[in-house]
Design goal:
It is a single chain. The protein has 105 residues and is of the alpha+beta class. It has seven helices and three strands; from the N terminus they run H-H-H-H-E-E-H-H-E-H. A three-stranded mixed sheet has the order 1-2-3. Strand 1 and strand 2 form a beta hairpin.
């Protein structure tokens, strides 16, 4: 089974390397972090080597920060040394967004 997995990884590497770098980093987040994390943590921006991941709350942010090194290593294996840092940002809540709107609009 390992030769098939290696072959698939090589194909994925080639496909990702053919994408623009910014796109490849965002698209490959689920491959790097795994399906369970990707369902709750979404790559939203990549700029100047910094990847920003949106998470549902501070608990998720705190937990995922412990895995940042693992994610950087995963990206290096897939794309090379493109991603230099990973930042986790708590997704603004709907009530917070509504209160930020100017009153009377």
């Amino acid at each position: 089974m390992e030769p098939v997995r290696t072959g698939l990884r090589n194909i994925m590497n080639e496909l990702l390397r053919a994408c623009p770098r910014d796109e490849a980093v965002i698209v490959s987040w689920p491959l790097v972090c795994g399906q369970e994390v990707a369902e709750r943590a979404r790559a939203i921006e990549f700029s100047n080597g910094k990847l920003t991941i949106e998470v549902p709350d501070a608990d998720w942010r705190n937990q995922l920060q412990h895995f940042a090194g693992r994610y950087l290593s995963g990206y290096q294996g897939l794309l090379g040394p493109i991603v230099e840092s990973v930042q986790f940002k708590v997704k603004p809540s709907i009530s917070h967004q509504q209160s930020a709107e100017p009153k009377g609009v």
